[in-house]
TrEMBL record:
Record keyword Transcription present: yes
Residue ranges annotated for the BHLH domain, each copy included: 1-56
Keyword DNA-binding: no
Name the UniProt record assigns to this protein: BHLH domain-containing protein
Swiss-Prot/TrEMBL GO biological process terms: regulation of DNA-templated transcription; regulation of growth
Pfam families: bHLH_ILI
GO molecular function: protein dimerization activity
Amino acid sequence: MSSRRGGGGGRITDEEINELISKLQALLPESSRSYGASRSSASKLLKETCSYIKSLHREVDNLSDRLSELMSTMDNNSPQAEIIRSLLR
C-alpha cells in the first residue's frame, strides 16, 4: 500500500482503489462477488457491503437474544451452562 494514505494529502490511485475493491469483495459472501472494478460497480459493492454489515449486526443481536433466553432458563451450575460460559471467554 502507498504510504501517501498515512498522512499526506496525496490522492489515492485507481490501482489502489481496485486493489481495495478486490480485498473487500473477498470478505463478502459468494453472492456479492459478481462486481467488476469499475466506479459504478465499486459503488454497488460499497452499498452491498453496508447491507451485509447491517445484516451481520442483526444476526449478532438475534443470537445474543437467543443466548440470553437460553441462559435464563438454565441452571447456572449445570454442565451446559459451564460449556456456554467457557465458549464466551
